[in-house]
Amino acid sequence: MSFEKEYDERKERFENYLNSFIGGLGDIPEPLYSSIAYSLVGNGGKRLRPILFIIAAEMFDAQETESLLKMASAIECLHTYSLIHDDLPCMDNADMRRGKASNHKVYGEDVAVLSGDALLNMAYELLFEAVSLADDDIKNNYIRAAKLISELAGARGLIAGQVVDTAVDTGKHISARLNYIYQHKTADLITASLLAGAIVGGATEFDIGRLREAGDNIGYVFQIVDDLIDFDKGEDEDKNTFVKIYGIKEAKRAVSDRTAMALTQLSALNKDTSFLRTLVKNLSIRKN
Amino acid sequence: MSFEKEYDERKERFENYLNSFIGGLGDIPEPLYSSIAYSLVGNGGKRLRPILFIIAAEMFDAQETESLLKMASAIECLHTYSLIHDDLPCMDNADMRRGKASNHKVYGEDVAVLSGDALLNMAYELLFEAVSLADDDIKNNYIRAAKLISELAGARGLIAGQVVDTAVDTGKHISARLNYIYQHKTADLITASLLAGAIVGGATEFDIGRLREAGDNIGYVFQIVDDLIDFDKGEDEDKNTFVKIYGIKEAKRAVSDRTAMALTQLSALNKDTSFLRTLVKNLSIRKN
Fold it and tell me: Distance of alpha carbon A287 from its chain centroid, rounded?
């Protein structure tokens, strides 16, 4: 099967689960329910993080159980909430997201704040359900994976990156600041996805270490390629990006170097990493 | 020991833990760290919910372990995040909270949004730490309690109440709407605190059922007394409160009826509920 076909099939399977999960949520008042559904399932996305999580878990022989799919959905809820809050007028003030109106442009700022809160909280409802449902012999793996996700999503992870990205002056040198933002705002949740999958599957500490390094490199590749795409489209005017600071040539070199490092780190695992390596190569040359 | 002295001692013990927890958090960038500390530990509060949680847990013979204190802190983080987001300009637009400037008046709207997010996420970091540290024989109690907290804090609990409180027109009759808001926005987290404590302590399903009824009544008492205090101070101008809709006499009657119900429900437990019952009586006659 071609890589593209396998990715699309994985994406479709995950989205089917996500749709049935959202469809089965009762008792959420309007307009909160519609707003959550709009951003989580009505607004597309690559589903990169939940797919990375599932691939990593399967690489380490975890089964595709209800617990696994709940944890994958939790990661997507975290990603989606961070986008809704990032787009708010007091943050990036973005009217559009993935070619459609951003959440607050459709539902208003108050509902957008609360929908983000609801998705953040829902991520943890899902993680506790995943832990509750997990078989006894792997329950501690699920607890450890969920704890790691919570750390990398929090005030020392994703949110740390958002704060430094938002703050006018943090006293950091511009390159150190950019590095901090890319590490936390982008790489942390990507790394968390890979590590959580590996931990659920019972990976060794050696393999977890290699995956952490690879995850961080994949995060940087993903973000710098995003910057290059934004530059091509002329959509990076108000942003401090790698391309802006170092130029296109350096940006392309960083993508190439980081991709090579990630591939080497993945190859060091005693597992079949072929699908994951192809995914990383494709991320480095994507155009949207 | 007098009730007041015992309450104050419990509050001080909890706050000492919370202070050392916040003091020990490294790696959170400014101004996020200061903003979190400002609202969580610099801004007072009764600490009602964590104290209810600890009292309930001790009633059912749970030990005051690190896990217990982490769960209590998680509950206070949830309460504090909800206040920061409630005060935002796009929500209640409140300049003051507990006699001091609200979070966004000090740190700006962007940091206030992210601090709320960080506290919400931190609640779950704490809950997963609590679960991880819990002894094997009560780990499942901690998982069940944390899962229940996550449900009552989420889109079908606390946040549901916030959305209906914010929405201009939800199609609900005004009394049904008020009831919905009081149930979810106020009572759910109070009930969650009592139930989580009882579950951690291994309470029977019968006792959990009685505590759920009592918790909901305590939540209503707490909110209607708040309304009466706001009315006395002339601070309820823009709010739809129980006092506004039904008048003072009915509000006082509701407090008295709900208090009596809560006391009866608590008396049905096969435990020493004397401290909790005195707490409920004091809540019903408080003046601030």
Answer: 18
